[in-house]
Sequence to fold (634 residues):
Amino acid sequence: MNYLDFEKPLAEIEGKAEELRALARRNEEMDVEAEAKALDKKASDLLVDLYRDLSPWRKCQVARHPDRPHCRDYIEALFTEYTPLAGDRNFADDHAVMGGLARFDDTPVVVIGHEKGHDTKTRIERNFGMARPEGYRKAVRLMDLADRFNLPVVTLVDTPGAYPGKGAEERGQSEAIARSTEKCLQIRVPLISVIIGEGGSGGAVAFATADRLAMLEHSIYSVISPEGCASILWKDAEKMREAAEALRLTAQDLKRLGVADHIIKEPMGGAQRDRDATIAAVGKAIGALLAEMDGQSGKTLVKARRKKYLDMGSKGLAA
Amino acid sequence: MNWITNYVRPRINSIFSRREMPENLWTKCDECGTMLFHRELAENLNVCTNCDHHMAIRPRDRFTALFDNGIFSEIEVPKPLSDPLHFRDQKRYPDRMKAAQRSTGEAEAMLIAEGEVGRSRIVAAAQDFSFMGGSMGMYVGNAIVAAAERAVKRKLPFVLFSAAGGARMQEGILSLMQMPRTTVAVQMLREAGLPYIVVLTHPTTGGVTASYAMLGDIHIAEPNALICFAGPRVIEQTIRETLPEGFQRSEYLLDHGMLDRVTHRGKMRDELITIIRLLTGQPPAVRGDLPAPEPIVSEPDAPVAPPTAEAPKTS
Fold:
């Protein structure tokens, strides 16, 4: 279990309970259960306390928690017959973006998402979920496929942002992102998007421009990272707490602004504390949102999707 | 006493005193350092007469030089909610806005207008880098949508001059949402079969490049403009390498297939006329017959207020 900095007191209590139990296992005469239980209770009270009113910056930390379920976990658990499709037919296959054909509740769909990786090796392989132009071009190709064969699209968003690299720029990172967003607005099939962790700027927009956007309770979606914003506007990257506050990047604020349509509740203490429950909740939400889109013609879907984005923001926080 | 005091020192002093010339009469080229007299600079559309460096040009000046006789009618932009997030960094966002409005004399970072260019009617939009870095917020989004709607309504080509550091952070996610919003505007043009020409000027970066600026039917850039998604400093920090000379500049993008053309500002108008007439099936422009664009500065040596067009307002 990885603890975040603000969870340190919790780590101490949970560590003590664990120690006690380990001691008891070695020494059968000892009965520590009562004490351990008391510690458990203390820990769970503290957890509730910590997570009751998470500050925006803490939410950023939870959204980036390495133990959160990632795109691959969701695809494995929620979809059957997942058949990954690779490549942009142009230059390469980007491992930061995974996607392909699959079934969701028996319905054939196209699923696309950012994958961050879960250990050093896979993180490097996945480039920490930072896509290059090839990733967006692969997504465009898959969305085209979905459009042609009338398959709903589900996107899972989890990226710090598009990769700021030399090759990525050379090969047209901006153009690739613009085309992906454009494709999201063009396809005549339902498009459901879930932000499962970090929705980092343009790299997220390229997948999250959807009929319905759901966000996990502690996920974020922002024009810039709080650190980046702090270093530009406060001239001090350490002011990320203030920046996170000002940017209104939490799922709750985004719902008020009309950007997110639905918030998926996370287990107490964040998705990382009960991955299976989180994945199940996301699955339920995808099912419900897809059902909302059921039976709508392609033309209606595109028209409504465009209207949604044209109208967005007109009411501010009162939306 | 000796040549140092008699010759070198006065020269040094003269260099320094030259730099202290009143700013409104002289502009120093950021590239070659040449001091340029305002009138000459304006006549040359803010392109350095010495090194051809393209300096920023305000949307009104650009439109005055672009439209026939310098006449255009401004299109009103629906006002967005101001300060939707109640954003506050070291300053309040409304205060930053007021400061930008005071220093530029403009309401926001984009000007949109309709008028004739080489006797073809067009809708044009120009982003104002001097207004909070040209940043794209709700207003810029509204402007692009309004311009596209006007173009569709009147069946006119749309020419957009981009210049921005990216999305406006002070509007948070709502600035980011201008990426899909402006993309919808581009789609409206495309579906109506209308040309959408993007002229990318220095600098065009971030979310602006990654949306409407890279979705044109034709991409033309001014020479040596920085055009990118992530800026060079961010990339250098990521890859820990110094980037090659000219990286992410117009000519580099042209080489990498992201642009159709790189065109000098002085030739832009003629080129736009040619392209627009070709795309809309009109006969070639009759050059001799065209009214000349109005000169930007009319009163010689007048203390310079930024030249403004007497634009009839439409509403």
